[in-house]
Write a structure and sequence with these properties.
heterodimer; A: alpha/beta; D-Maltodextrin-Binding Protein, domain 2; 2 domains; five-stranded mixed beta sheet; 42% helix; globular; B: mainly alpha; MetI-like fold; 11 helices; 0% strand
Amino acid sequence: MYENLKTQPLIYLVTFFLLIVVMVPMGCTAEDPDEPDQVMVLLDWTPNTNHSGLYAAIEQGYYLEEGLMVEIIEAPGSVVHMVATGQAHFGVSFQEEVTYALLSNMPVVSIAAILQHNTSGFASLKEKGIETPADFEGKSYGGWGSPVEEATIKSLMKPYGADFEQVDIITTGEIDSLIVIEREADFAWIYYGWTGIEAELKGMDLNFIELRHIDPALDYYTPVLISGKNLIQENPELIERFMRATGKGYKLAIDNPEEAARNLLAHAPELDKELVMASQEWLADKYQANAEIWGLQQKETWEAYSRWLFEFELIEEMPDMEDAFTNEFLR
Amino acid sequence: MKKWKNIKSNLPALGFLTFVVALWELFCRVAEIPPYILPAPSEIALALGDNFLLLIFHTRITLMAVLGGLALAILVAFVVAVAMDRWKPLKQTLYPVLVISQAIPIFALAPLMLIWFGVGLLPKVLIVALVCFFPLAVNLVEGFSQVDPEAIDLMQTMQANRWMIMSSIQLPFAMPYFFSGLKIAATYSVLGAIIGEWLAARAGLGIFMLRAMNSFRTSHLFASIVIVILLSLTLFKLVEAVGWIAMPWQRQSKDQLEG
């Protein structure tokens, strides 16, 4: 029985294995060693209109003009880690995350505020009648169940003398917020520039309570661009070139939202075109807003929010906010 | 003859699937479910058509991680299994460790892989390899140890060395075990690659899924699920086919059994 199958299986196995090995490199592209500097940017989420300036700078050739070849990668949840360890040059983060990173001695610094103001807030269906934070009482909130959400709701209710204990907190995790407020809970935390616009397009009537209108401390920077302290020390010139081109990209998004939307869609055709166009239009005057130049960060904004985090016992000490951000690459 | 039998044996599953899809379509239409909650099969088919080229592009990237990971897992599983069979103390030391290693949730390990190995193809290949390694190694070890000891004794009396025993008795004997391990590994592998892409990637089916989800396009998400199913199914069938070609003796005995 054994003689007719001596080496046969081995041969097939080796062939099968080789076949797989040969197939793997297909589709890999070769890299040019002496060409422009390779730069990697990590995104906090799926590509969206917050990132339009980056995509515009790629599509319009602003990065190439600076001798940079920029690659954008989506890395939700690992941005700070990978920028801190030098796996990537830049990343998109937000003020709270950078503050926590600072407290854990992770070497990252915010180098630009992508939006001047916090555009997030609590959304609910109009028929629920949630017009001010006082109306949160007796209602349910659907979110990730993180302590900062509870503190934010508490903080908004305080000036109205409303009782936080009467809010039912439900963990809905990754469920789309619009579905959450339709069927799981009464209100949810959304970014108006994306989810709010989607609701408008769907014809949903929303009440929207913007955080910064209730508590100025909550007008923190979200999102921000970050880089590693090591890179700032070793190669500040690379960051300057990157930021010059990125600034131009956001300038385009401000002046010509339609073109910026097209540039974003060219890189992420999976997105809904209508949503991107409408969101881009809405965000155009919010990137720079009233700031002197795009990206500028104020020390007061960094301090106000960390003071707030400290007051609500979400952090145990107040870090020196001087270390959290820098404006030196914006000019 | 065999082909026909195959089709016939798949008929009930196909019929059931058609029934479920028809019911689903009817339900969506009659109950007027909004497409962002549950898209009807017809909408998913449309989304598949609209995104066909894009899905092919992302599938190619995912496939590279899947094949790379499978190849690596096969290679390492063979080396480890042969070594464990050759040196018994090694088996006693490593086997429990292998089992323990499977208790580590891949979701916890994957972010570390990214921090250690960056965001390119390598960490995804490693995640796939990690997922696929265990069923392969365990089945191979099992297969090697189930060989009829008399056959080995016979070879030894005929002055065969270890390598000859391995290649002419143990390896063929372990093949059915190997291929059933490979079937499991092949179905897991796509999942492993997508987990890797969810954490950080430039492209791939995982990225397509995230983008579809985060821009509220549920029908596109379902379209990519269809692709994942097709991909897993193709890999599974491919393994089956290779097994059929590589093990003629199994084929005969099976056909005889089935009459």
